[in-house]
Amino acid sequence: MIIDNTLRYLLLSLMFVVKKITVLLLSCFGIGFIPYVSGILASFFATTIRFFPVQNINEIIFLGIPALIILFLPLNYYFSNKMKGEQKIIVLPKVIGTWLALSSQVIAYTTPWILISLSLFLVLSLSRTKFDNFLIHKTKIWNKLTKDILSGAAALIVLHAVYAGYLIYPFISAYLEKQLQK
């Protein structure tokens, strides 16, 4: 009888710890509990990885994105079954999408390019479209992850186009100046 109660207590304690760790990770260490701006703050938090003085930061981001997705899938499934109605605190997909928007091997990420990347991701991620209704209807509990991954990929594509224009601009400007002098 005492062993049954002790085992039951240990099991309940373990379930409590798992629930708290799940909430901690899905809310990005509590950022998800901040009302109204939790997604934006989580994206700002995710952006700080680019400021770490590490030489191979791109490899860390490339390994971190699939690791966070693999971590998110079972945590989200567990959370959605156990804590219905508290889906607003889940901001880990914002971190994944922000890292995806910051994952280019081509772009030299200085502070302005980091801010442009973050702005593009936030505009694409926070905008409401008819595609959102489709995602909510078809993917149910995975719609946040799907939308933020697609928003991160779209932000990365647009950022490459803007960066290419930035790199080509001096040559086009010199060519047009030469044409005007003729």
Task: Categorize the overall geometry.
Answer: elongated
Rg, rounded, reads 21 Å
State the low-pLDDT regions, or none: none
Secondary-structure-based class equals mainly alpha
Mean pLDDT: 82
Q: Helical percent range?
A: over 70%
What distance lies between the first and last C-alpha atoms, to the nearest angstrom? Answer: 99 Å
The helix/strand series, from N terminus to C terminus, equals: HHHHHHH
- Total beta-strand segments: 0
How much of the residues is beta strand, in percent?
under 5%
User: Major beta sheet, specifics?
Assistant: none
Q: Helical segment tally?
A: 7
Number of domains: 1
Written overview of the protein:
- By secondary structure, the protein is mainly α.
- It has one domain (2-181).
- The chain has helices spanning 2-26, 38-47, 57-82, 92-101, 111-126, 130-139, 143-181.
- It is elongated and about 95 Å long.
